[in-house]
Design goal:
It is a single chain. The protein has 353 residues and is mostly helical. The protein folds into two domains: 149 residues, no CATH class; 161 residues. 88% of the residues lie in helices and 0% in strands. The protein contains eleven helices and no strands.
């Protein structure tokens, strides 16, 4: 009985100590924020390179098993990757830039169409009580405020990405050495880890690699398919800027649940400036693409590699959005996956003892 009380008291004191430490770190954050920003900027190319190496490692291993030297396998993958990306940029970027310029030139026209739409709504509801108009004005104001906040957040996210692109020249070099010297890196990590954790650590890394790697690779493939299908659908219904809108839908689809809504928003706004019929066509296109993605693409390409309840995923997405905007929502599920695998290992270790 005394042993249980002692353990409970120890845990309580430890919890208080952790909470006080977190409170102190939060209060002192302005003093070490600059240092953290500097360290983060230095680490960004290493983190991106490590992430790319993590995705490409299984392919390199498959080629290496076929008696192809590791350095040659990496160069083959690099050539195919950069050749494919280069060709895609060569064909797609001029059209994308043209559509972006066209869209920028027509923004005043879109604004005028939006004002006319609001005016029509007020005219058609002129017989309704004044309180209804007040509530409608408040709803429209909140909608405009929400849209401006999200657009600003999106631009800020892209600005951060552009900062990363400044150091993109070193990323292929780092990725090459990560892939080439993966065994040395594993051996170094093994030496830095106490021997009693070697087996558990190896199992943990393997499980994270299986769950996280399968999910991320699958999501990238699904996003590519969704972007292509959306582009084809938008092109068939005749909406303006089909390539640009297809890229947006495909890119935002990497965010579970909320991604399709974010991606559909620009298409619906542009369709509103054309006609109500075009809005209906856009919504039908997006619904059809999402049905194909939800029932055919994701189950077969991504599968159930993470095994996490949707409620936890939605909670993680909301926390990620609050913490880091769009980038936080993109990283929310991968981080949650790692936490889940680590928690399962801790639970199994406790159960074993």
């Amino acid at each position: 009985m005394e042993e249980k009380i002692r353990r409970a008291l120890y845990r309580f004191v430890l919890l208080i100590f952790i909470l006080l430490s977190l409170f102190l770190l939060a209060k002192l954050f302005p003093y070490y924020k600059g240092m953290l920003v500097g360290v983060w900027k230095v680490l960004i190319p290493f983190l991106i390179s490590g992430f790319i190496a993590f995705l490409l490692h299984p392919v390199v291993e498959k080629l290496h098993e076929r008696h192809l030297p590791r350095w040659a396998a990496i160069l083959v993958i690099f050539f195919l990757f950069f050749a494919g990306v280069g060709y895609g940029l060569y064909k797609g970027i001029p059209r994308l830039i043209h559509q972006l310029r066209d869209l920028n030139a027509q923004i005043p026209e879109f604004a005028e169409g939006y004002r006319n739409l609001i005016l029509q709504i007020y005219q058609q509801t002129s017989d309704l009580p004044e309180s209804f108009h007040d509530q409608l004005t408040e709803i429209l104001y909140q909608l405009e405020t929400w849209t401006n906040e999200r657009v600003t957040m999106l631009i800020a996210s892209f600005t951060g990405i552009m900062d990363v692109l400044v150091v993109a020249a070193v990323i292929p070099v780092l990725t090459f050495y990560f892939l080439k010297d993966i065994e040395r890196i594993k051996e170094a990590c093994k030496k830095l880890t106490p021997k009693r954790f070697h087996f558990e650590g190896k199992t943990l890394v393997h499980d994270i690699s299986i769950s996280l790697g399968g999910y991320i690779r699958g999501q990238f493939i699904v996003c590519l398919f969704v972007g292509c299908l959306s582009f084809i659908g938008f092109w068939l219904i005749g909406i303006n800027y089909p390539l640009l809108l297809g890229v947006v839908v495909g890119a935002t689809n990497i965010i579970p649940y909320f991604g399709p809504l974010i991606g559909a928003f620009p298409a619906v706004i542009i369709a509103l400036t054309t006609s109500v019929k075009m809005v209906v066509y856009v919504l039908i296109t997006i619904i059809v693409v999402q049905v194909i993605e939800g029932n055919l693409l994701s189950p077969y390409i991504v599968g159930k590699s993470i095994h996490i309840h949707p409620i936890l995923i939605i909670l993680a997405l909301l926390v990620g959005e609050e913490a880091a905007g769009i980038l936080g929502m993109i990283l929310a599920v991968p981080i949650l996956t790692c936490i889940k695998v680590i928690a399962e290992h801790i639970w199994r270790a406790k159960a074993a003892h």
